[in-house]
Amino acid sequence: MIKRMFFLVTMAVAMTTAMAQDNPYIVKTKGVKKTAVKAVAANADTDKDAEPTDFMGKNFRYYSMCDWKEGMRFMVIPEKYDLLVNTFRDAVTNEEVSSARLRYSIMEYRGYENMANGRVHVRFFCDTDNKSYYYELPNGTFDDYCYGKLGVPTLAYLGDVDKARELLMDQNLLTRATVFREDTEYDGDGYREVTMPKNKVVKVVAIGVGTRSFPVKIIVEDEDGKQFYQNVAMSKTNSGLRDNEFELDNAKFLFEGSFEFTGADMAVSSNVADYLNQTVHTKYATAMSSKGSGKVRDVKVPRFTGFIIDEIKPVKNTEYYTLTLRETESRRIFYKEITFSEDVARANNQPDDFFGRLFGLGEGQLHSTTLETRTAIREGRVIPGMTEEEVELAVGEPVSKIRDSNGIMEWLYNRSNGVLLVVQFNEDGIVKKAGGRAGKASGGAKVTRRTAAYQNSSQRLTGNGTPLQ
Fold it and tell me: Would you say 177 and 198 are in contact if contact means Cβ atoms under 8 Å apart?
């Protein structure tokens, strides 16, 4: 019996393969090779909300079975389990029909019928073979059944596919997930997972049917001509999954979990886009926003904090952008508005808004940097043993650099409390001493010897240093 079932399933798959090749809903990434048909192993309630205003809600409405209208179209996309447990019966003979034989068939919904025996038949007309079929509800009335999200097994809703083709073909999108798929079988459903960077600009080149749970297969192509795809649930109609099942790893199977639009309001120039996915660090302590416990709060981010730039969005009617930043250590998400134009930042009297002033590329952390030094940098202190680069990370560029007759380099900083911070380096460029005295350094002037006032200063500090604040 098992051998006979195995043979029937194999033959049914072979028969539907040729049909699939001429089906406009079956699309493949380029480069996939035609292969011989392989046998399939034998063991192998929503409330009505207010009118939505977002793109997905407006264009991809969820239809529970209670809201299905006659003429709605679906495609039979059986999983391996469905090849052994038949879904449909012939409306004339009442005999079960192999899901494998109906694979890729287009079914039109024709309403439901309460039978004399108390069972309910959900009726369909098959466009492919011009025959009528029905799905018998496992139990209960139609009203009881339709308010759940069980739906009809094997059926992928084509309304979402048609609407996606109308709205998304040839559109440029940004990738929001990092794991996508690439076809490995021209005549089957084989695929391999491929890793892509987030925020990669891609173009939609084909849209077809995916699976029952994720009915819309979106194939995109990057600037190098590489194609990959994601099967996504647009409206979740007949997906068979609850809303809470589209979380964690399954979040990428929602359109907004894998893609984002790059329309006029969101497009960034190629120069700006180059910063996407870059690792950066803060050169100065700065205020950012961070989401925690469901609320967005303003927080102070210390110097020397490393981030990965996850997203760049233009701020409407300005020359500013909102960066979405993921801290490299905690993975916590932060937001910061900046400009990539130093002139714009100066014109607004906000020089620290300039990306190049606030951020440095890379983690900003040398392998030889000690925990004590990193802590001092984040707190804005200068301590002995720091390099010139670490001093700049801690307190920024000096107002003046002084070299005395013995060749000793000193950097001068004006502090807000009127004290002059003096950082003295040894011949190897390592901080020897850091201290302060009353007075201010002349901006940017370079001298060849120390002032007498400084020579007589008794306020030098030799240990802990103090912040430049």
Answer: yes
Query: Residue 214 — φ and ψ, nearest 5°?
Result: -130, 80
| Spatial separation of the C-alpha atoms in residues 432 and 422, rounded to whole Å | 11
pLDDT by residue for the chain (469 residues), tens digit each?
Answer: 544 554 454 555 555 555 555 688 888 888 777 654 443 333 434 444 555 556 787 889 999 998 999 999 999 999 887 777 899 999 999 999 999 999 999 999 999 999 999 999 999 999 999 999 999 998 888 988 887 778 999 999 999 999 999 999 998 888 888 899 999 988 888 999 999 988 788 999 999 999 999 999 999 999 899 999 999 999 999 998 888 888 777 889 999 889 887 653 344 565 677 788 889 988 888 889 987 655 677 888 877 788 999 888 888 778 899 999 998 877 888 999 999 888 888 888 998 899 988 998 887 654 456 778 877 876 778 999 998 878 877 787 788 888 877 788 999 988 767 778 899 999 888 999 998 776 666 554 443 333 333 333 323 333 334 334 3
> SS3 string of the chain?
CHHHHHHHHHHHHHHHHHHHHCCCCCCCCCCCCCCCCCCCCCCCCCCCCCCCCCHHHHHCCCCCHHHCCCCCEEEECCCCHHHCCCCEEECCCCCEECCCCCCCCEEEEEEEEECCCCCEEEEEEECCCCEEEEEECCCCCHHHHHCCCCCCCCEEEHHHHHHHHHHHCCCEEEECCCEEEEECCCCCCCEEEEECCCCCEEEEEEEEECCCCCCEEEEEECCCCCEEEEEEECCCCCCCCCHHHCCHHHHHHEHHHHEEECCCCCCCCHHHHCCCCCEEEECCCEEEEEEECCEEEEEEECCCCEEEEEEEEECCCCCCEEEEEEECCCCCEEEEEEECCHHHHHHCCCHHHEHHHHEEECCCCCCCCCHHHHHHHHHCCCCCCCEHHHHHHHHCCCCEEEECCCCCEEEEEECCCCEEEEEEECCCCEEEEEEEEECCCCCCCCCCCCCHHHHCCCCCCCCCCCCCC
